[in-house]
Amino acid sequence: VQLVESGGGLVQPGGSLRLSCAASGFTFRTYGMSWVRQAPGKGPEWVSSINKDSVTTLYVDSVKGRFTISRDNAKNMLYLQMNSLKPEDTAEIYCPTDGVPWGQGTQVVVSS
Length: 112
Description:
Blueprint: E1 2-6, E2 9-11, E3 17-24, E4 33-38, E5 44-50, E6 57-59, E7 67-72, E8 77-82, E9 91-94, E10 106-110
Parallel strand pairs: 2-10
Antiparallel strand pairs: 1-3, 3-8, 4-5, 4-9, 5-6, 7-8, 9-10
């Protein structure tokens, strides 16, 4: 049972990144999935969620219109397209779901 996040990196303000989360060891297509971030020195913040069949997506207000969550159940993959990135988006980002240990996260740094 594993979640592995990837795709983070250093990007300039206004830039884009696409994060990926590879799921294994559980029936991915039956789980709602989320992205959660933790900025340096702060607590975890929920960012976005998607239900098991992609019908419903939710976002925290601060990323609405900039981030898009999606999933590919055939590939057991979750994605987060992040556009118009801001310095305040700098954080370690995770893709947790119920009953599955958190992955190691992927770091996003937005800086000029």
